[in-house]
Each structure stands twice: as C-alpha cells, then as structure tokens.
Write a structure and sequence with these properties.
This protein is an all-alpha fold. The chain is built from eleven helices and no strands. It is globular.
C-alpha cells in the first residue's frame, strides 16, 4: 500500500492526475486483451486513446516498455514456430524505417503527428472493417515497402504491428507460426526502439518510467485474459467491433489536431 501511494505521488509530480492514470489503466488492459487474443494490436488500440490523456512523446515510449515485456512473454513461449526467413526479409527495411521514424518523433511538433496518426488509423480501420479480416497471399518483395512503412509507424506511434501482420499473414498460412513470428518481431523492434529512444533522450522524461510501472500490471491482466479468451470468443467479431471504436478515436484525433495546427500559422 505504501509503495502504491508512493507511485501515485511520483506520477502526480509529473503532472498526470489520478483520473487520467485510472483511465490509462483501463485503456492498457483493453489493448493487451486484444494483444493476448491476436498477438498484435496493443499500441494501435492504446496510442490513439492515451494521446487524449498524455502527450504523444510520453505515450509512445511508455508503450514501448509494455510491448517489450508482452512480446517476451508471448513470443518466447513458442520460438520453434518463429519463421526466421521472413524476419530476415523484413529486417533491413524495418531498421531504416525505425531510424527515420525516431528522427521524426523527436523533431516534428506533436499536433501534425497526431493528425497523421488519425489519418493512418482511420484508413486502416475502415479497410479492416470492409475486408472482414481477409488477407491474400503476397510475394516476398512486399517486405521492402511494408517493412519500411511499418518501421516508421512503429518508431513514431508504436503501431507498426498491423503492417507487419499484413505482410506475415500474406506469407504464413499457419496461425501459430504467424502469431509467434509477429510477437518475436514486436520484441525485436522494441529492443531496437529502446536503444534509439534512449539515445534520443525520450526516457529522460520522469513521467515515462513512472507511468510504465503503474500500467504494467494492467497490461499483464489484459494479456492473461486475452490468452484465455483466444479460443473461446470469435476473434474476428471482437476485432470488427474494435475497428469501429478506433474509427471514432481516429476521427476525434483528426478533429482535435486540425484546429491546433491551423492556429499555429
């Protein structure tokens, strides 16, 4: 109890109020429930909602810490199913995207980035609702554009998982191989981002690690629930509902960021 109160005092000192902290906890629980069911999706669920409570430059490194822990818990449990060949195809282009994305994150004002996140999220969510979760077989050459674009999105917003999923779902027909490979890829990109974020100074913000420590138990609970529900509930139906919710979150991001951008001119 004393440790919990101490954590609240530390977070309060960074300017994050207790209402925002509990709201963030609920968001993280939901996002990792989705992760537990699908093997991806934590950041694309959490970041659009968290940025309504905390700055993007705080939310992205916080989600990195949580994704790193979740990726190790999920991905390392089934290493035999990981398809290293596909990771090697994506790797070089993904790294280039990561470096460019971190540069953008630390140098570009937040409101234009929030607008970009809203537009990308709205486009992707609308596509997923219309596609009903269907993916087509694709060639290995798609590793270049999807790896690069996914790396950029991962660095700036932590939301590259869906892009990797488009590629790996088009390459791997086995669901266990796909899930293990995606989780391992998320873990590897999290390690790379941890190094890049540390070098760029994003972890000098005291709110980041305090908030990550507060949210870690929430993410663990969501992950465990999602893993148990994976075979009991239709993932497709859950994701369709989720994309509809995220369409609303994306529209809200766009509506909030556009006036602020024009006010700066």
């Amino acid at each position: 109890m004393i440790a919990w109160l101490h954590a609240q005092m530390e977070l309060a000192s960074t300017g994050i109020d207790i209402t925002s902290m509990f709201a963030a906890g609920a968001i993280i629980t939901l996002s990792y429930l989705v992760y537990g069911m699908t093997g991806f999706g934590s950041s694309i669920v959490a970041i659009p909602m968290l940025t309504q409570l905390i700055p993007l430059r705080t939310a992205t490194p916080v989600m990195l810490v949580l994704d790193l822990v979740a990726g190790m818990l999920v991905g390392l449990r089934n290493l035999k199913a990981v398809q290293a060949q596909e990771l090697c195809r994506l790797g070089p282009w993904l790294c280039i995207g990561l470096v460019l994305g971190v540069t953008v994150l630390v140098s570009v004002p937040e409101k234009p980035l929030e607008l970009l996140l809203g537009v990308c999220l709205l486009s992707y969510s609308l596509w997923r609702v219309r596609s009903h979760g269907e993916f087509r077989r694709i060639g290995g050459g798609w590793a270049l554009p999807l790896g690069f674009f996914g790396g950029c999105l991962t660095a700036v917003f932590g939301t590259g998982g869906p892009v990797y999923t488009i590629y790996l779902a088009g390459r791997l027909s086995d669901a266990d191989q796909r899930r293990a490979t995606i989780s391992t890829l998320i873990t590897l990109t999290a390690i790379a981002r941890l190094l890049l974020f540390s070098m760029s100074g994003l972890y000098r913000n005291p709110a980041v690690l305090h908030l990550a420590g507060w949210l870690l138990p929430c993410g663990t609970i969501g992950l465990l629930i999602g893993a148990r529900l994976r075979n009991a509930i239709s993932t497709a139906n859950v994701l369709t509902l989720l994309w509809i919710v995220l369409i609303g979150a994306a529209i809200n991001l766009i509506v909030r960021s556009v006036p602020a951008i024009f006010a700066g001119f």
